[in-house]
Amino acid sequence: MNDGNAHERAQRLMDRDRVEGIALEERRWLDAHLAACETCAAWAEAGEAALRMLRSVSVAVPPGLATSATLLVRERGAQLRKQRAQNLALAAACALSWVAGVASAPLVWRLFAWLGSALDLPGMVWQLAFVFWWFVPAAAATLVIIVARTRSRTDLNMSDSDFV
Ligand SMILES: [Zn+2]
């Protein structure tokens, strides 16, 4: 093996050593070459110095920065989970109000009919009253959901600007 090939091999091994490591045999050969070859030893030292510098730079990044970023991400995750739970609760309340409305509708219809005849009201009036009784809670629940959605979206937008 001529010298040029040996230097090339040494440098290839050094590069590979930093990325994935090298076999024991290769390391032995490399150590022997570095002990004998000033050029490659200098190259190795320069590589190590560069790596040391990179490490010290990455340590120099304020440790609080990473922590606060992690906290922000975690906080936002909790916020999103909370919002999802709130939406779920609202949807459940809405569904419940619909179910309760449907289930009790025949009973209430009869009640309104009885009230209508007892108060001698025109059919139109107590029937409209019934529709309102049935419709208003569901409409109110829907409205609450829409308002809550809009508000939580605004909250998220605000935290977006906090994030930056
Ligand atoms: Zn060499």
Textual characterization of the structure:
91% of the residues lie in helices and 0% in strands. It has 164 residues and is mainly alpha-helical. The protein is built from five helices and no strands. It has two domains: 58 residues; 100 residues. Bound molecules: zinc ion.
Bound molecules: zinc ion
Total count of helical runs of at least 4 residues: 5
Find the count of extended strands (DSSP E, 2+ residues). 0
The low-pLDDT segments are none
Q: Order of SSEs, N→C?
A: HHHHH
Average of the residue pLDDT scores: 79
Query: What radius of gyration results from the CA coordinates?
Result: 37 Å
> What is the percentage of strand-forming residues?
under 5%
Shape: rod-shaped
| Helix share bin | over 70%
> How far from one another are the termini?
58 Å
Sheet with the most strands, sense and barrel status: none
**SS-based class:** mainly alpha
Number of domains: 2
Topology:
Elements: H1 3-19, H2 24-36, H3 38-60, H4 63-118, H5 123-163
Helix pairs in contact: 1-2, 1-3, 2-3, 4-5
The protein binds zinc ion.
Zinc ion is lined by residues 6-7, 10, 33, 37, 39-40.
